[in-house]
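Good morning N.,

You mentioned wanting to compare the apo and holo forms, so I went ahead and generated the holo version with (2S)-2-hydroxybutanedioic acid. This is what I fed in:
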Amino acid sequence: MLNNLHEQPADKILQLMQAYKADPREDKIDLGVGVYRNAAGVTPIMRAIKAAERRWWEEETTKAYTGLAGDPAFADAMVDLVLDGVVDRDQVAAVATPGGTGAVRQAFELVRMAEPGARVFVSDPTWPNHLSILKHLGMETVTYRYFDSATGGVDFAGMMDDLDALKKGDIVLLHGCCHNPTGANLTLTQVHEVIEAMNRAGAVPMIDIAYQGFGDGLEADAAVTRAVAGACPETLIAASCSKNFGIYRERTGLLMAVAQDKGLRAVAQGNLQHLNRQNFSFPPDHGARLVSIVLTDDALRADWQAELEEVRTGMLALREQLAEDLRRLSGSDRFGFIAQHRGMFSRLGLSPEVVARLREEHGVYMVGDSRINVAGLNTETVPKLAQAIIDVGG
Ligand code: LMR
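and this is what came out, ligand included:
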C-alpha cells in the first residue's frame, strides 16, 4: 500500500525553516516563518499567559474531555474579542479548533458540506496553506487581484473587477488584518465596497484573522471583521490565538459561523461540532483555557494588552527603520511601502534571483516571493538587511 504514495510538494515556509537551521553561519538572519521574536531573537511566553498557566496548574482538577465545541468560556471570550457585540451572541455558532489553521480547514469543510459547488475566491497572493488545503479538499479556487507589486499596495480596482464574477453561494476569503504574505491591507471604505459586491452576488465572506493586535491595535485590527459580520447575512470567521497570545504550539483557534437567526445558528453549531468529532473529536484545551483566563481577568487582560502593544509598536519601529535605511541607501522611496504595511509581513517585491542571492551571499532567509517576517529583525540587523538588499541589486 505505502508504495502507492507519491511525494508531497514541500511547504515552502517550512522548508525554509529547515534550510535556516542547517546553515552554520552565525550572522544568518531568519525572516521566514511567521513567529514573533523579540530583540534577542527569542519567542517569549507572554507574562499573562505564564501567570494563567501557573494558576491553571493549581486549579485544574481533571483531564477528562471537554465538550466537542471546547470550553464555552473560551468561545464567549473570543467571540467578544473579535466581534465585540456587533451581532447577537446567539447568532454565532463557535467551536474551538487546533489553531487558526484548524479553523480554516473546518470552515472550508463546512462550506463543502453546505454548498458543494461553491468556489472560493482568494487574494492573489494569499497564505500558501489556504490554497493547499483547498486543493486537498478538492474545492475550486478562483484568485482575485490583490497585491500591486509596482506600488506595494492593494490593486483595489483589479480586485473589484475580479469580484464581479461572484455568483450566489461563492465564498470570498478575506484576511481580517495584517495580510499574509503582503502586509498590504484594505481600507475600511474599500471593505464596504467589497461587502456590497458580496451581498449583491449572494456570496458569503470568510475571514481569516490570525494577527489581531499586530497591526493598528486590537480594536482597529478587528474593524474589517466586525464591518463584514455586521453587514452580511452570514460570515465565517477563523480566528487564531497563536500570534497575539504567543501560544503557537498549543494550537488554539476558534471557528465562528455568524448566522441570520438562532435557528440557523443551532444547525450550524451542530454541524461544526460534527466536523470536530469526525476530524479529531475534542479540540485541545490547554491553550484555550489560558486565553479565557487571560481575557476574563482584568489584571491579566490589561497586562496582556500592554505586552501585545509593545510587540506591535516594536514591529512598527522596525518597519520605519528599514524603510528609512532603504530610502537613504537607494536614494529613492521605492521601499516606502514597508512603513505603510501592517502586521508581521511585508512582500518586498524582489525577484527570486535576488532572494536566492540574499540567502547564499548574506545568510538572509526570506520566503521565495520576497516576504519578510519583520519580527525576525532587530535594530542591529535592519541596517545589515538594507545594505544586503542594495548590494545584491534588489
Ligand atoms: C506563516 O505564514 O509563516 C505562518 O502562518 C506560519 C505557518 O504555519 O505558515
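Residues 126 and 185 are 12 Å apart (CA to CA).

Happy to go through it together on a call whenever suits you.

Best,
F.
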